[in-house]
Each structure stands twice: as C-alpha cells, then as structure tokens.
C-alpha cells in the first residue's frame, strides 16, 4: 500500500513517557526525526496547529494530518511506519495498529499486545530467493525474446519478398487471362459445330438430367408437364418459368429440355459450387501441442463444423459447362476429336490460370493480414501467429490461438464455446503489449457476448498457465511467453535491497 | 442466491422471451385460487352467523360463545381472551370438526398471560365484556354476530361488521370415498387435545341439513399442469375487520410495495404465500418469499395491530371509504361537517386452519410492536460482526478467488466482515460439502480469514440431492424424515442439484438431526468462523406448482402442506440457528440469513428481500420493504446491494452502497451472469465514495448495535417509519423515502439518477435537526431542500439525542473491539440531550446468561453531561473508553462538567478540556464511562 502522497512517512511514535491514559499506553519509542522534539510544543506537520508534546502519541488525534499520532491508531488518516529490518519498510494505515492482525513483519504494529513475531528476516530471505529465481527466468526469457525478435525480422523479410513475388505473379496471371479466355472462345466455336453434327445420339449427361427431371416433375406421368405440376414445386415458382411454359400451358419432354431445363436446372438442384479450398495457412514452426486439424477462420460456422472431424473435405472442382465425363464421350471422327481436344486444352489452360490467380490472391490476402498485424514493437509476438495452445482445468479444455480466437470445450462432452475473436492489444497504459483482448464470443444468457483477456507474462517457454472466469462470460487467460520478457538492468537482483 | 430458473435448460426457454419481468402466469391470481375466488364472491351484507349468547361460558381466562350459521346450522366455537398488555385474542373453529384443524405451533412464545374477563353489561341481543385494566370493552352482538372493541366510548375496531365471516366447515365428500387417513389421532401435533374440539366428534353425528351448492374445484383444483387432490375438500376461513378513523394501514410483508398498503378493490388482494418469484416486479400485491400475517393501522393518537395466526395460503383485501377521493374532496367533506368518517376495511382469507386473531391495541406505535414482540418474540440480538459489511456473489469460485477478493478489501482499505459462498462452493450442490477441486482446504481458508478478523457464510439450502452416495440423503431417507407425497412416498422435486427431496422441518426430530449437522465434526471443513445462509426455503421446487411444494404433500403428524406452507421456511431457519448455537456448546450467538420467513422468524436471524434487480426502482423499494419487515418484527432486514439481477451502473452502485450502509443487513450480492462488481472495479472516484459509505457504516456501529439492543429488548424496529416517532404528524404517515434509524437519525437516501437535491421532511414541532456531516442545524417541522452531489447521503441527527460512534476506520468490527467511543451530543432547543450506549462482547450469550454487558445512559443538561447506568444488572470490563464528546448546537461552551454515577468496575470521568479540532469544539480525552 502506497503512502498517501504529500505527507512524510513518520516512523513510529515518540513519547516522553508522560502521556499515559488509563489503560492506554502509547508505545515508548525513540526517533531521530527532528520534528519530534520533546523540548517544545509539537507543530502538526501540515502546519495546521500545535499541541503540547505530551499530546504526541497519546492515542488522541489532534492534528488534521494525523502527524501527532505516528504510533497509534487515533487518526483516521494516519499512517504507521514499519521499519521491518531484514525486509522492506512499509507504511500501513494507522487503523491497522493494535487491531489484532499482524501487518508488519517486524510485529511493531501490534505493540499493544506484542502478539506478533518478527518474521522479517525469514520473509526477506524468501523474497530474495524468489527474486533471484524470477530474475534468472527473466534473463533466460529475455535472451529467447531477442532471438524471437531476430527470427521475426527474418520471417517478415521473407514474407514480404514472398508477397512481392505473389503480387508479380498475380499481375502476370491477370494479364494472361484475357488471351486465354479468347483462345477458349475461339476453340469452342468449332468444337460446338462439330459436336452438333454428331447429334442426336445417346443423351448427354445434361440431357439425361433433363429427362430425369421431366419424369420427376410430371406428376401424373402423362408425358406432359403442366403449370399445376410445376407449381407443386415451390422452388420452381416464378413468372419466368410460367412464361417459358408458353401459352399452351403444358410441354412435352423435348420442349421442356429446350425451353425450360436451363431455368429449372439451377433451382431444382442448387449446386453452388463450393469455393476451392483456401491456401492452407503457413505450417507452424513446430507447434508444441498442435494436433487438431486446421480450422477455417469463419467462426460462425463453428457449430456446424462440430462433427467434421478428420481431414478437410476438399470439394471436387465442378464440371465446366458442357463438359462430360470422358468415358461417356461418344466416338467422334478424328477431325471432330481434334477440335474437341483443342477446345478442352484451351479450357484447361484457362482454368489452371484462374486457379493459380486465386491461389496467388489468397496468398496475398493472408500475407497482407499477417504483415498488417501488430506483433509488438519488435515483432516479438509474431511467432504466436498461426499456433494454438491449450490448458486443461478440472472442467474445461481452453484453447488459445493468439491473434485469432479463444475457445472452451467442456471435458465431459458438449459443444465448444467461442470465448472471443481477436480484438486488440489491451494492456494498461504504458504496457500496451501486456494483455490481449478477444471479443464477440458466444452470447450469454441475459448478458453480453463472451470476451477474454489474455495477460502475457514473461517466461522461458510458451504455455497457457491459467484460465479463469472471474465474472460470468468474462475470461482471463494467462500466457507465459519469452516475448513478454524485458531486459533487466544489470545487478537488478541486488538492487532495491530489502 | 437465486430463483434463477433460467439456469436450467427446461426453464431457459420460458425465461428468454420475457426479459426481466416476472412471469405472472406462473403464479395464481385470486381468481385462480379456489378459496379466494369463493370467498371474494361473498359481498358485504348480513352475516348468516348468530352468536348464541346464552351459551357463554366464562372461564378464568377465556370466554366461549357458540356461533351458528343460520343457513347450514353448523355450530362454531368462539373463544375470547383479554391478554395482559392490551391485546385481545379471538379464536373461531368448528365445534365438532370432522378432523382437527391445524393450529399453528411454534410461533407464540408460550401461552400469553390473560386477564380475567368480566361481564359488565347485558341486554337483549348484546353482551358487554370488560377486558382487564386497560379500560377496553368488547361488545358481542347476537344477530347478526359481530364484535365491537371499545376503549372508553371510542370504537377501535369492529369484527364481522360487514358480515364476511366465512368458515367452510368440513364435510364429507358427496360422491363416494371419504379421504383415507384423517390425521386425527397422531395429528394434534401442538396444543394437545384437551381444548381441541376433536374429542367431541362423536357427539354430533347429525349431518348438517343444507349444504350449499358445491362449485367445481371444491374437491380438486388444477393450476397449469398441476392438480391438487384436496382430499378434505373446502376448508377455508375468512373474517373482516373495520377500522373506523383509520386511513393508513401497513405491514403484512412480504410485498414489493409502498410502506402504506393500498386499497385492493379492482385488483388482487395482497397475497401471503411463500414463493420463489423469479425477477419480481415492484408495486404489486403478489406474494414473495416470506409472510408475516401482521397488519398495523395508524392514526393520530392510536395505533392498532391485527395478527392473523394462520400459516396457510392467505389473501388480504384492503378497502377504504376514502380511496379515490381527492384531497380536496376529503377537505370538502370535512368542511361541510358531513361525509363519512374515514374507515379502512381489512378482510383476511386463508385456505385452511382456524381463525386465530390477536388484536394489538397499542395505543402508541411502539406499544403495538412491543405487544407483537411479547407474543412472537423479538429480534435475536445479532452478533456484532453481522452488522458490518458482507460481500457476496454467486459465486466466489475457489479458494484463490476468496483470497483475492479479501486482498482487494485490504489493498483498497475497505472494511469487510464477511465473505459469502453461494451454491457453487458445494460438491455438486450437496450442502454440507465442499467442491474438492475448488475448495480443497476450507479450514485453512477460514483460518486465514479469521486471522484477519473476518468470517465466512456458506449456503445450506433445504433441498437435498437424491443421491445414494450422499450421506445427508441416505440418512434422511433411512430415518424417514423427508416430506411425503399424498401417497406416502418421499416427495421429490427438481431444484439446484437436480432431483431433490425435502426434509420435513416441521418434525422436531428432523430439526434435531439438522441442528446436529452443524457440529464441527459433522460439517467437515467448518470452523467457528463459518456461518450459514438458508436460501430456497419457501420451499422452492422448480417442478412444483407455483415453483413450490404440492399442497397435498404430507408432513409430520399427517398434516397437509397446505396447512403449514408459510411456516416451513421458519422451521429451516430455526433448526439452522439452533445448530450454530449447539456447535459452540450454547455459548455463541448464531448468524443465519433466511429468504423465507413467517411470524417469529425474527428470533432466528436475518432476512433479506430476495432476488431483486439492479435498477433504481428496486433500490427505492428496498426502503419500504425493510420498513414493512421491521414493523412485522423482522428488524434485521436488507436488500442485495447493487441488485441481484443485471449490472448496475457506477452511479446506481454508489447510491446503493450509500443506502445499504443505513439499512440493517448490509450485503452486496450479484447473480452468476452479472459482471464482477467488487468496489475496486469502479473508477477511483466512485471507489472513494463506496469507501466513505462503508466507513460511515462502521463509525455508526455502536449506534446500530444499541438500536438492535433496544429492538431485542422492546420489539421496536431498528429502521422505523417516521410516524412511529411522530405519531401525530399526518405528513409522515405515508412517507417511505426516508426513515429513522432508531429514534436518533433521519435518513433520506438518494435514489434518483442524476439527483441534484432531495426534499427532506424534518418532523417535530419545535424541534431541531443537525446535518450529520456538516453539523448544520435546521428547525422543524419543515421540508428542507438538500442539494446533493454523488458523495452526499442526507442524514440528520435529531436534536436532543446523543449517539455513540467509533471513528477509527478499522478493517472489521472485531478489529474495532476496544476502540474508544465518541459521543455526538445534539442539543435540543432547550439545550438538553440524552441517549445511550450498549456494549457487550458482541458474540456470546453472556449478555443474557451472565449479565455481561454495559448499558450506559447519557444525559446532557445545564452544561453537564452525566453518564449513568441504564441497567444496573449489567456489568463488564471493557478496554474501551470515551475519547471525545462532540456537542452540536453550541459554540464554545462556557463550561462542561462530566460526572458519572459510580458503579462497579468503572472509573470516573476525567476531563482534559475543550479543544478546537477537526470537529469543532470538542471535549478531549475522557476516561472510562
């Protein structure tokens, strides 16, 4: 407890031995401080008044600043000074004097009963040892931190150059796309004509699909599709389809394929082709506990991903329009086949270029995000990126992926709960990088969304040390990391002597 | 802790929709409660009852008269007592009941001593009885039956004047099978059969001729998904009381209501039925956690009380002939000399039991509370530490959390006496156990707290987890001590631990067993520093009708739950308090907080207003609620500081601390789902205000303790409505935003957001009041506008009083032991003042068993402060002394002399003289008492 500012710390009482009240006996003590001079009246240190010296430490408060009672609990605003030889001097509220609780390790605050032993030497020794230990930890941690800073700088340079390369690749790919599209268009024209000449034969996959859909929609099986039958499928509702049905109000299967199938296909079987998988994040630099699968950054889908254990399912690249599986391809004459092959090559080339572009863009985005992150004044926290750490308590498994998210999973089963997504550095003033804030986790009953503060503490290794929920839906994790270590001034252990 | 049904998935869905509003559909309206509907349908008119005056029998104590219902011909027995100390008791029950009715045991301290009644007059149709030396007379009118109570020529109260006496006599079920096991033989649990009417059962076998038409629901009643089997059919009772000249009635807690009760016409009556109401709202007559069927009425020069001793579900209708009239209208009536005399009508309706009423005849307000205190006991003298500050939260999570919170109080120099642990501390909500992971070493934790002069309270609820591996459950099952269903199986319901059974606390053997569980070797990990909190003792049954127990559940003696519902919580409280006394070998006072209560609960400890909400309305309502509690004997009342549900803003939190510091039970508490709110989480500015409020509380502890002693001895509330001290000033009759602490301090907490000032009414013709902080003097009566900042708590000391304080800001009450006292002598305009100080060891029963206490009386007049013993029986040696006397109302005194009347063990006064200090001119350095 810090002493109140602006008032001098006064060692315990001065007494001439005369001011004794009934059972009260203020402590007999001596002080070298000049203002407790028994030869004259005592002037309150704030100058507010002056009292007979016999009234100093007589267990009655006379001075507004409490300075006449440095050794008794009489003044509400007084402080009592413990010398605590062997340990650290301390100032305690005067109200702690003679209250039956040992506050000073030298026991002087309980001078009335003398019930407190002097434990300063023992405590001083313990504290010195602890200080040595923690200094050793801090030094080790700081050395590691310096290495992290170096590695971060190298990794950053490497990433920047990778970014540059990707950006160049993107420019080059963007430039190539136009010609490739033109080449595809050019090749597909002749191909289509050549294919036309070979129709009709076995229905293509698309035609088969149309026939299948017709049979499905033709509720009464009379070979004609009516408006009523179409309306039985709400997903097909729409003026566009009704218009295509024409004035006749019904169509046969051929007309259906020509006029309606194009409209119906998407609505009947919406096959939004999933995005091709994103470039997997940087492989971690030997993450210690990394064992689970990589996770998509979209937090909202967490629940649905619940049962998707195991490797990520890569959805197949959807077939391009008009492209059929090769084994069902009918036999063509050589010339036609050559045209088809040429068109296919053009398509493949375009698709490959588009894929490459997408990859390059994903890579750029990921690198830009990472390079845009604030990893500390010297980038020392960057090694935490793309890694996760876990901590198991009696009830939960906590998982921290720094700069990304915090989650909690009950050990006795049950769904994972988001405790927040990366928000910002949130240390106190002057120590911004002492804590991180994760926000917007799963909402609480009658309360806000869950949020987590991660406090960072110097250590030689990287590990989650504590997970608490001090308040409902507000979590506190403690992460030990060398990146949080600071340089100790030389001889730190010996300084600030006890 | 909590009604928080929302924590259970089953109820979660129900609660999500209605945010922060009580779900009224979960609780019955009068219309949905069969007997209330039946009784309320009966309108005032000629009573069918006739008093058979010739049947009068005058015993040494009691007079009996038969009443007959002229329609059904069912005879009733009216018993009348004139009790010493201006109390009249009347009891009505069936002359020949089919089965004994429940007469509430364990509430009255004993058989109240009676005066001899005499017949002083008689004419055709009227009988006059005199009720002892108080000059009270009772007129019994034959037809229709009514009673009129007079003091000299003044009519105080009439009974059945509106003809609303209802006694649904017991009857046989018409259709078929009569109920199987009437508890007749084993049933008369309490007062023995000699005055019970059960023995006359065979005398009158004749069926009454004309049974009234039975409406549906008479023999079975369904509310929501719950069916009440009602094997004994309709048994309700009701009676009306007319109070001429009265416009103000109070009491019948617990309701979230203004101090003055409102007329209930057009709405529901006030309901008394102990219920766990989730997120209750203010200003409704709905039932809450506790019930005291005591109503007070007040007018200039007269206060009365009506104590309706019945533990079944009860509704109270209040009628007023001036309700709805404007002030101008009333004035007009007065000026024209016409108009009716104002009159209040009170109608009580209970589902079963007998009519047993005590009319407390005052005449002063303090006489009524004293009369009630003599009947049901006064507030137990709390251990001193329990008047300090309590820090609670659902939940302090583990030993490290407890340690950290306590360290917070140390570091921020905030006084603290007790830290609380809610349900999560126990191992799977198995009370009397500790979660082994979170609280592996409870004894060590308690010892660390005790070393810093602090204590702990852990929760022990009366629902017991049904778990074969839980000793409490296996023993209670083996001993057959659980409440039973109507079919005789152990009654089980859903509560915090899941499936739970309910110990039958109405059984003395159960209470005995429970009390023994608090022995240090039974409640493992407990020490003398651990005290107890009984929550959920309405009882709360999440799966039951209205979140409580089925009315057809069976208790000891065969009684149905319906008969005794409202007293269940009292028995839990009683057994727990007994356990804490017993564990100390009878030496130390218990501290037990209970949520449910009944008449008499004040003997067992503290109560609070349950699960309130962090909003300004709930802060405001805490004052009238605690005032009502106090009028009904429950002086040790508080509200969760900060509000249980939701998060208070900093302003509300500070204002709540300031208000709570001046309410008897001072505990901050919060719901599991709220943000942490220990005071140091506020800004430094707000924290400083909380610290100041806490220190003001602690400095005034000698005054609080002395006030509790007055209450303990005399039954007078600690927190008093103004009209108790200014009974002839009608301005004060409806005031409930300010109150008195004892008779000495007037408190008007700021309960409005952004307040710039408050209007404080200072009562008392020709009196003066002193601002407690500035010592500024104000004349009374007046309404004083007091400008306020966020640091202001408007408190005024009454001129003519002396209050003791201990001004050293210690860390806890125990750390203040031995600290000197300062007397604040606030002079009346006549230059006089008096007051007193009560001191004992603060923790043991030695004050009662060994007279180990000091009760000093201080009197200031003619420049002389005299200290004398207020009770020569008491003696004790105390290290404390009187360090300072501050006299308000004079400049520098000419002279002052302190004298003390020599008594054993006390030194004389020594005066050093006047000094000018922080507090102005004070007498410095005074020895002894």
Automatic annotation (TrEMBL), chain B:
Belongs to the glycosyl hydrolase 31 family. It holds the Pfam family Glyco_hydro_31_2nd. This is Neutral alpha-glucosidase AB. Gene3D superfamilies: Glycosidases (3.20.20.80), glycosyl hydrolase (family 31) (2.60.40.1760), Golgi alpha-mannosidase II (2.60.40.1180). It is found in: Endoplasmic reticulum; Golgi apparatus. It comes from Taeniopygia guttata. Coiled coil: none annotated. GO terms for molecular function: carbohydrate binding; Glc2Man9GlcNAc2 oligosaccharide glucosidase activity; glucan 1,3-alpha-glucosidase activity.
